[in-house]
Amino acid sequence: MYHYTELGQVNTKEMFEKAYAEGYAVPAFNFISIEQFNAIMDAVIEKRSPVILLASPNLHKQLGYEILARIVQSGIDRIHNAGLDIPVALHLDHGMTFAQCVDAVEFGFSSIMIDGSALPFEENVALTKKTVDYAHRHGVTVEAELGVLSGAEEAGEEGSRTSLYTDPAKVEEFVKKTGCDSLAISIGTCHGLVKIKPNPDGSLPELRYDILQDVMNRVPGFPIVLHGASAIDPKFVDMINQYGGHIEAVAGIPEEQVTKAAHMGVCKVNIATDGWISALANTRKILAENPAAIDSRVFTLKNRVMMKEIYLHKIDVMGSAGKA
Ligand code: 13P
């Protein structure tokens, strides 16, 4: 077992203080392969951007935390070998149980999320507080969630809509009672491919900046997090379908809306799907064009190059270039 400082990481405290003060968001990217990890590091090194690497509990099943911690350590070594000092945090994305959070802390994560958002308020408070008390003893920062993110699936359907967003009136009490270090809120983003429904005139609904502003007014200076912020480039959806896949055309979160949220005080923005669909589209295309291929290197190197472009662009969307 090891502590995150031995692996060269930092927790998110100072990252968020700087992001809040300077009006940008720290990019938080999920990775599920070595190529994706390398693409993220390529981009943050080129852009001099702080970064939060997101690993869900499933990645533990896929790779094992021992390997994960060493992969991240190798990326930090790469930064230092280049004479740079870019802050890197390995963050548990959507830890659902206290035990998962303990595992992550013991395996060198500098930051964890305990997601009690599906629980009744008081149960979410209790689970989050227990996790915070434990994590803080190890210097690890904790993100919690209030509000149901999948609510945006119902956007436009009267009646069910507002109740699914974060209730700003509850935020101050939640933060005070739990001692969490940052809070993911629901203002219209959504995980995965199914995000928002276009308005009848074809325009896209805006994120609920009014809720965000209300939250910021109630907990000024407190780091707010946005999940589910991928833009879903239709080019990759088309490519996946052209080369044997079958996924629905969907509307993602317009990037200018993410930039606006970052200017308003959102300190961390999570992106998974935009990285995944680009790599999968490219993989399907290359395999279709190379039916005699016998190993994955025919697409892995190209995927790294392509995903790097995605992350370079996302860093610009969040305004974090040159902030390390
Ligand atoms: P996307 O599915 O929009 O990329 O969101 C990812 C996320 O929020 C992971 O926690």
Q: Supply the number of helical segments.
A: 13
**What is the CATH C-level name?**
Alpha Beta
Based on Cα principal axes, name the global outline: globular
The number of distinct β-strands equals: 8
Q: So what's the oligomer here?
A: single chain
Q: Outline of this structure?
A:
By secondary structure, this protein is an alpha/beta fold. Helix content is 48%, strand content 13%.
Task: Walk me through the topology.
Blueprint: H1 13-22, E1 26-30, H2 34-47, E2 51-55, H3 57-62, H4 65-81, E3 88-95, H5 98-106, E4 111-114, H6 121-137, E5 141-146, H7 161-164, H8 168-178, E6 182-185, H9 209-218, E7 224-226, H10 234-242, H11 255-264, E8 266-271, H12 273-289, H13 297-318
Parallel strand pairs: 1-2, 1-8, 2-3, 3-4, 4-5, 5-6, 6-7, 7-8
Helix pairs in contact: 2-4, 2-13, 5-6, 8-9, 10-12, 12-13
The structure holds 1,3-dihydroxyacetonephosphate.
Question: Could you explain the architecture of this structure?
Answer:
This protein is α/β, with parallel strands linked by helices and 324 residues long. It is 48% helix and 13% strand. The protein has one domain (4-318): TIM Barrel (Alpha-Beta Barrel), CATH 3.20.20. It contains 13 helices and 8 strands. α2 packs parallel to α4 (65-81), α10 runs parallel beside α12 (273-289) and α12 packs antiparallel against α13. The protein starts with 12 loop residues before the first helix and ends in a 6-residue tail after the last helix. The chain binds 1,3-dihydroxyacetonephosphate. The site of 1,3-dihydroxyacetonephosphate has 14 residues, from β3, β8 and α12. 1,3-dihydroxyacetonephosphate binds next to β3, β8 and α12.
